[in-house]
Amino acid sequence: MLLSVSQIKIRFVLIAERRNDCEMRFLPLPLPAGAGIAAERKNEFMGFLGTPLGWIMWAIYSVVGNFTVALILFTIVTKALLFPLSIKQQKNTARMAAFRPQQEALMKKYGNNKQKYQEELMKLYEQEGYNPMSGCLPMLIQFPILFGLIDVIYKPLTHIAHLSADTIAKMTEIAKEAGGILGANTYAQEIDIINALNSGKASLFTGQIGADIIAKAQHIDLNFLGINLGERPTWAFNLLVLIPILSGVTSLLVSIYSMHVNKATQGEQAGAGAMKGMMYIMPLFSVFFAFQVPAGVGFYWIVSNLLSGLQTFLLNKIWSPAKVAAKMEADRAAGKIKKKKPSKFQEAMKAAQAQQAGQAQSKNVPVSTKPTEEEIAAGLSQKEINRRRLAAARKRDAEKYGEEYVEVTDEDLK
User: Fold this and answer.
1) pTM score of the predicted model
2) What pLDDT, on the 0 to 100 scale, is given for residue 247?
3) I need a surface site. Which of 197, 318, 341, 408 has the fewest CB within 10 A?
4) Pair 286, 251: CB distance under 8 Å
């Protein structure tokens, strides 16, 4: 159900846009009014994840003394910390692309028999020493880091000034009562408060908040190259309007490049049309929400987009599918590729396939046990009749699906 503007409050919701197999992009989206409890729980969860990263941001800010410069360096540091996981993810994707021709051959051969296709695919994975679930671990590790990263970016009073939650709550309440300070996006309120304190509104907090606390908040410098990134961009003719536009443009360019890389390495994937639509929709979201939050947040998106694009380029340049395929071929020729012990996921898949095979075989036994005139004339027993009928059904399936014929055993007839 669509919600009108009057029915919603802008709240921060994380959604992920798939860059490649390991890059995630986060944007604020609207939640229906009344979702406050869910938002508070989410904020607590992200605050827990953001605490260790917050100390890194604090250390960087202590050295450079400028929020925007610290933001750039912090983004670079976190990208560097995640880079080993990104390398693992890229290698995994490249290996998958390297034996994609074999996978496509299996699809062509067993396309009409999904069960047989899955069985042969599992055999291919074992033969190549590949675990299809190995790419999930880097993603699971990155997820909490990315949630914590967002918390650090949006909460400088918490992570840089190290003010208590009660103090920040009191300052937020003062700002609400004063009006005209806080924006619609509740998650960026700490930046709004810092901007108010540094733009002639400190008197609103004097007397209710200690002078030392106000001084700490005012010490956080939101200016960069003469631009106050604590202000919200508008369509007025000034430099701030470039931030939402560049946020959308960089998002679009990186999405186009990533999709091009994915298509080259993985071929045409199912749902490619939907992904292409998202490629154009997400940058529009980025532009829209960059007007709803302080310019510093939009600036972070720009930096993150550029670093993500650079990372994708480097990963694909160094660990391209062609290079990985050549190495795999060399290892195969040298006998270095060994079958790995099946993972729990692969064992579970095999068990499920075996169960399906058993069910399929039981369905091949004819329901009617009444012998035909030919079978009566041949003097066949009921067991032999069932054996012949099941064998005939299996032969038909083998011819139809290109499978290997399996003789009927007494176990099949029980």
Assistant:
1) 0.65
2) 92
3) 341
4) yes
